[in-house]
Amino acid sequence: MGKISNNEIANLKKVRKVLTKPLRTKWTTQLKVKQFTVELMSEDHKYHFKLYMRQAVLHENNFSCGISLIEDSENDITLARYNGSSHVHVNKLDGQRFDFQCHIHEANADCLKVARKIEDYAIATERYKDLSGAIQCILEDYNIININLGQLISQGGLFDEL
Amino acid sequence: MNYESIKQLLCKSFCREIGFQEYKDGAIISLPIYDRDGDAYSIYLNETSGGWSLSDGASTIMRLSYENDIDALLKGSRFELLSSYVKEAGATYDDGELLMEVAADHLMTGLFDFTKLMSRISDLALLKHHRVNSNFKEQLKEALHSILPKHLIHENYIVPNLENAQDYAIDYKIDADIPLFIFAANNKESVRLSIITIQYLEKYNVEFNSMVILEDKDKIPSQDVSRLMYAANDIIPDFHQIEAIKKKIKHRLSA
Description:
The complex is a heterodimer of chains A (162) and B (255). Chain A is an alpha+beta fold and 162 residues long. Helices cover 20% and strands 32% of the residues of chain A. Chain A has helices spanning 6-14, 111-114, 131-141, 149-156, and strands at 17-19, 28-30, 33-42, 48-56, 63-69, 77-83, 88-90, 97-99, 103-106, 122-124. In chain A, the strands form 2 sheets. In chain A, strands 1, 2, 3, 4, 5, 6, 9 and 10 form an 8-stranded antiparallel beta sheet that branches. A two-stranded antiparallel sheet of chain A has the order 7-8. In chain A, strand 5 and strand 6 form a beta hairpin. The longest helix of chain A has 11 residues, at 131-141. Chain B has 2 domains: 9-127, no CATH class; 134-254, Restriction Endonuclease (3-Layer(aba) Sandwich), CATH 3.40.91.
């Protein structure tokens, strides 16, 4: 896809997404990070996505749930990342700063004029306070239609240890 | 110009931009230095008997895992770089977590050193392509020169009197009764090029033995590895296996 426009980003956000295969993935813990990744595709099979969830074992507010467009193994494009409140964020585009607040990074083509990552722009949010809330938000916002929190719990036992 | 006022301005703006939050076991601090996505590097600070303990809470590796397969990323030359950065900073790496002990009166420099360490490790993801390729080739060259006399090694060898030979350059030719052609490969494209070159040379009845040294077999699709096994005389699955390279080269040279 190369350069991506904001219209394309908006389209990728709203396109209905489904699992590429039945959900059998389990949560794993590696290097003090709980992690879970599944592949999604648009219903018309035109686009493939990676949905990932991470949470540091040491600090439960250090979590992230993101979705990327899979281009090839080296060039995925992050569409969004729903972060916890473990750090400060500063937008290069408008200078907004969030101190230890949950925030949502969203791809914005304008970022690449001033920043090194397309998802540099973020907005603070109070829609969620923890990882399960962030997952619920990303499932809704990115139109992921055949996966839900209940499945995640029964498949992976995610929240048993959180 | 009142330069003293510049210093005061810098001090004030620097202090204003320091991130600080207390948490149950200590405090989280971040300096006004940001990762490539605009997120600051959080440092978890705890008081110890002699000073301070700094930790990244395993967040550096966690951030790398968003876009990278951590198993593949933290292998070979990149893990060596990570280890050297950690050592240089006087820190430790504990199963994904970066840690550093700082004397009571060295907190400021410790925070800067630790932030620098997190930033350097974050940038390891940028070394996926050209730098690692170059590191691999350089390290392999170094390994070959440690095994063999320099006069026996010919880098980027072009087979003489062969049609289009310049399109089928050999990474290293080692002089022997039957010359040994060594190919270095660190991705599927370079594996395929090695196979094509070997098959081209065989088609023109060039007499040689072949050895393909892989940076990491696990990073190569299994189909390409299978094809390579048919084409090459010897394969080294991981170029760090210097003893195996030495043994196989000596075996070929003495044959």
